[in-house]
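Homework-ish question, so no full write-ups if that breaks the rules, but can someone show me the predicted structure for this set?
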Amino acid sequence: MTQQAPANAALPEALDTVLQTKFGSRYTTSGGVRAHHGHDESHFPDAPPQAVLFPHTTEEVAEVVMRCAQYGVPLIPYGAGTSLEGHVLAIRGGICLDFSEMNKVLAIRAEDMDVVVQPGVTRKQLNAALHGSGLFFPIDPGADASLGGMAATRASGTNAVRYGTMRDNVLGLTAVMADGSIVRTGSRARKSSAGYDLTRLLIGSEGTLGIITELTVRLHPLPEAVSSAVCAFPDVDSAVRTVIATIQLGVPVARIELLDALTVSAVNRYSKTTLREAPMLFFEFHGSPAGVEEQAGIVQTLAHDHGGLDFEWASRPEERSRLWAARHDVYFASLNLRPGSRGITSDVCVPISRLAECVAGTRDDIAASGFIAPIVGHVGDGNFHTIILVDPDDPAEIERAEALNHRIVERALALGGTCTGEHGVGMGKQHFLAAEHGENAVRAMRLIKQALDPHNLLNPGKVVPWPAD
Amino acid sequence: MTQQAPANAALPEALDTVLQTKFGSRYTTSGGVRAHHGHDESHFPDAPPQAVLFPHTTEEVAEVVMRCAQYGVPLIPYGAGTSLEGHVLAIRGGICLDFSEMNKVLAIRAEDMDVVVQPGVTRKQLNAALHGSGLFFPIDPGADASLGGMAATRASGTNAVRYGTMRDNVLGLTAVMADGSIVRTGSRARKSSAGYDLTRLLIGSEGTLGIITELTVRLHPLPEAVSSAVCAFPDVDSAVRTVIATIQLGVPVARIELLDALTVSAVNRYSKTTLREAPMLFFEFHGSPAGVEEQAGIVQTLAHDHGGLDFEWASRPEERSRLWAARHDVYFASLNLRPGSRGITSDVCVPISRLAECVAGTRDDIAASGFIAPIVGHVGDGNFHTIILVDPDDPAEIERAEALNHRIVERALALGGTCTGEHGVGMGKQHFLAAEHGENAVRAMRLIKQALDPHNLLNPGKVVPWPAD
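A: Not a homework solution, just the prediction itself:
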């Protein structure tokens, strides 16, 4: 499934030589390494880069960008490779910048509750480094993604309903722009009105406007008390209505996750859990002991009012860990429902008042399609995923799955939602941008891309199609 | 103090005629109306626009922008005129778009906790419209600013420590771009990764990238319980250290405001309060009755530990209103300390750990300068203001005040902070942008401005200097 042209093309010899001289073994054109960097967790065909380079500093990245710009060679930043939308695929060839060796936590400033990290630091690594500080980094997209990648895709995940997304939790960035200039955005102040918000412009730009080489991110105090619970429901609708009531009451729940019955059954098989195979909500509450009790009491009442079948607590840390590990493995558990399959994952997010309607319509679509497609989501934000299981070698089936995905997205847009709550646009969602934002907004995005990257060298072919594309 | 050239220049006759025909009395070149729109709350010389137009719809704004673009005539959006940085001054001439007649609350969606408003709606008007809904709009910059203006300057104010700034509370915007195209950004979903964050790019762009004609903003549940308190301290440092301890403990305080002794004395005189004339913190706690009590108990202990002299509660709504009305009148109370003066207002914001150092150094600078300059601030965010009282007709004094302001900003930048936490750049902070963000970041901002407004027609001369400036 390799896209032939870029994979087989050689880099300009002079560039190849200078990078080899400068970076030694940290620069490679080995087929194995390139192949490893030519795919992610998406169903898109592999597209390996022409070379892979492991930078150690912002200045090195700037030098590589300038040298590549001389030859018109694209650059593709690479974090942990967990993207679901083809972000890291080198569809125009070019050099992959793998940030796994830029993985230092540079400064923990507990007194300001912020931390400076290199982009290759993963969320688990960061939280390990914070051990004993009384602080944690809450953003949790499931996968152990890198912070650079999470910022680039505006990631969020299970805790976003309480702690926000990467948009809300990055204070500042260092980025290398397409001309090789190094830009520092934001400051360590908690708020600022000093000029255009370059930080937020780079967050979610998926490496197409600048390459993130350093991040300052917010931390949060570890909650004094944490409590988790699961509750089964007679049907998805009752579960969703419990979520809506919880959010509308303003309960500051830390996590509130929906799994449909098929997902729960996949989880039981994959993670050896014994959950009741019914639509289910996973909850987590953070706060003072009294606060957690207060929140949990309200939610338990709401669940009961909406037909919740039971409310099982997991208060011990190891029970909680097991529960959330099972939740995080949903993607792989789902793939396991159909061995050899890949997932085409929808990521719609709608206003909470439309969530029940959106989920119900999506379920109807899935039923009509004949696909196996578990539903799971961060429903407190109105965000849910449909993992459509496809045979990656069957183009006709992929086409049918994409048609299903299209219907799911169209419904979400009609309900005032977005085509992607947290996965990003990459290659898979470009054709929805105009439907979601309108042609004028897409044109404004393209003007920004052309202004900041006039030769289309930074992760070309992602987010906003170039005019010639 | 009027800048002569633009004020006296006539608009191209054909443009004048077409706008008069189309808009009738909603378009005026009357000297009085122009003069009213030629100044704000800043100390900058008046600069009236060549005409003032009161649009009623987004489409009207688009038409005016297209017609003005034909003639190269600038456009300056105008909300409530409460800017402190000269944002509304027509320093290159042009037409002022006064949004006071676009002041409808278009849709209150209590079930999603969001609201759609026209840009001329003020924060007090919005909260009045929300009466009985159980929801409120928390952003409170003191002045009864318009939501369009607040979005344009990325405003915040007293509640930001708990509820965030306009950056965090705007879900989507409609804006007219420099070519007259209408762009809709964001969606009603709570989060999205769908493309570049045009919403956040427009927020804080001060009318220089697009003219905001509609906003969808987040609402929050009215807290079940609210409690306010004031506490006097032996010195500013003790008060600031109490704030730092509160934030570092993660207490979700809703407001935490510092007034120095001079400010308290100004407030007593202006608002007829009888506060102890010592450095003082104003607190507000939001939550469940138990939650508020818990928060207040922690903060009271912290205040006591840092030498707090007393802790006076204002639990009755009318007491609270009186207290916060006095807080909001600090700017005018301060001007009253020197009749006939104007304020040059610093707006620095630093990491909380550096706040004590920043305030202490600022106080030393003020003492050395001989100026009357009360200090007041949203210290929970690390943000505080110094209101330097100047004789607006004494250029030498203004120069000395600006030198003082410069020293205050330089210190804040050296401590990792920003030159403006919430007032915006306007005309007054442009020369600090490079020092804060670096030349490369300012260049990126200018590239964006040039891409989106190639003829420099949208609020020219604000935020980022044009190359020829």
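Now go work out the reasoning yourself. Hint: The domain at 4-100 of chain B is CATH 3.30.43.10 (Uridine Diphospho-n-acetylenolpyruvylglucosamine Reductase; domain 2).
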